[in-house]
Amino acid sequence: MTTQHSLYSQLPATDRLLRDPRLLPVVEKFGHVRTVEALRLLQAEARDAIRQQQALPQWDWFLEVEKRLAADTPPGLRPVFNLTGTVLHTNLGRALLAEEAVAAVTQAMRQPVTLEYDLDGAGRGHRDRPLAELLCQLTGAEDACIVNNNAAAVLLMLAATAAQKEVVVSRGELVEIGGAFRIPDVMLQAGCSLREVGSTNRTHAKDYRAAINENTALLMKVHTSNYAIEGFTHAVDEAELAQMGREMNVPVVADLGSGSLVDLSQFGLPKEPMPQELIAAGVSLVSFSGDKLLGGPQAGIIVGKRELIAKLQQHPLKRALRADKMTLAALEATLRLYLHPEKLTERLPTLRLLSRDAASLHQLGETLLAQVAPHYSDFEVRVEPCLSQPGSGSLPVERLPGAALTFTPRDGRGSQLEALASRWRALPVPVIGRIKNGRLWLDLRCLEDQTLFLEMLLK
Ligand SMILES: *Cc1c(COP(=O)(O)O)cnc(C)c1O
């Protein structure tokens, strides 16, 4: 009993701990309230230990309280190195924005902006107007509408132009984009009935034609952006469908997914269909994402015919799906870069990363290898050729040749790879690679800050 009493009296009082300068940084970091709470919990644990084991816990109170608080603090959004080889990685935030967009967002956050305000008093109305003018310039469309993402764009297009009516889609295009976004489900949510035509691999013009009746609201094309149908296939392209739509007086809409505004073949990438081409071919509405190949913020962009866009703008869902001032500011700054296409690869991170050539990545790899390898003696570290991908369902089957630093365990044990990957995930700026073929790959395509990278890897 007496020993227990003397042990209890050795427990430091909360007040005394709080006055100790060693606790100051903890209070600064986690706040007074949470620190006191954590100290009380530790004291209760210590009293339990005395009661059950007749011993004081062995911890250092200051380190322990910090450890407990840190473990109990959700990590939140953290910057990482995306060395996965997927440039537009949905789980890592897709497109990195241009400095011009970053500056525009900062300004829109700090100052009042003309979100829905005409300085010339012309009363042009809604928040999408300035962007719509820019988008019309870039795509040749008559008008535009902006929402929070392309999934929202598809929902709004369907709900505002085809509710209670039929939408004709090829069976080969009833795609799932990821998450719960499947074209048939979106149709249902928009109140449309889906009229499937053709087969998985082959759909012909006559299939669409036969499906059109007095209850048909739209013909729809969905870009199969995350998979490819190969072999014995046939699809009707947007131009042909638009022609039929004109003949039969049914609008054609297209969900383009990525929708690049520039011809990617100039960077050695396969060409993606471009919104301006579909508009020129007579498609009535075209939707695409802001944060895929466009390289901007998360947004859904719809361009097309004036009277259909007006329906979208007036639909109650538009109010629920509208983009905020930060998104609009970032998107405007991003789109303005497209007015200077010659500078795009320099200023727009997405295109800059996608267009890096294999030779320069190999060179970067060799430079890094010399510094990294000596710190990883349990691994054979090499520079190896690899194939990166744009990601986010854009350019589904195409691969970009590049270079990676690879780490192969000398003892051939796979568990070493997992251990290394998890050690890198625990770094102050986590380094995220990919395990494949018995080694850990750090694809260098998206590595721009070499100094910080080396600082992390040589820790
Ligand atoms: C990515 C994609 C979507 C969804 O776009 P988000 O901007 O991610 O909402 C819809 N349709 C297609 C064809 C896509 O590729």
Question: What does this 3D model show about the protein?
Answer:
The chain is of the alpha/beta class and 459 residues long. Helices cover 42% and strands 16% of the residues. The chain has 20 helices and 15 strands. It has helices spanning 2-10, 14-19, 24-30, 32-53, 61-71, 99-110, 129-139, 150-162, 183-189, 205-211, 238-248, 275-280, 306-314, 316-321, 325-337, 344-347, 349-354, 358-372, 414-425, 450-457; strands spanning 81-82, 143-147, 166-170, 176-178, 181-182, 193-197, 216-222, 252-257, 285-289, 300-304, 379-388, 400-409, 431-432, 434-436, 439-443. It has a seven-stranded mixed beta sheet with strand order 2-10-9-8-7-3-6, sandwiched between helices. Strands 11-12-15-14 form a four-stranded antiparallel beta sheet. A hairpin with a 2-residue loop joins β14 and β15 (439-443). α7 (129-139) packs parallel to α15 (325-337). It starts with a helix and ends with a helix. Residues 149-151, 154, 177, 181, 222-223, 225, 255, 257-258, 289, 300, 393 line the site of pyridoxal-5'-phosphate (PLP). Belongs to the SelA family. Residues 8-47 form the L-seryl-tRNA selenium transferase N-terminal domain. It comes from Leclercia pneumoniae. Pathway: Aminoacyl-tRNA biosynthesis; selenocysteinyl-tRNA(Sec) biosynthesis; selenocysteinyl-tRNA(Sec) from L-seryl-tRNA(Sec) (bacterial route): step 1/1. Converts seryl-tRNA(Sec) to selenocysteinyl-tRNA(Sec) required for selenoprotein biosynthesis.
Shape: globular
The overall average pLDDT, rounded, is 93
Which range does the strand content fall in? Answer: 15-25%
Question: How many helices?
Answer: 20
| Largest beta sheet: strand ordering | 2-10-9-8-7-3-6
Q: How many distinct beta strands?
A: 15
Low-confidence stretches: none
By secondary-structure content and strand pairing, the structural class works out as alpha/beta
Main β-sheet description? 7 strands, mixed
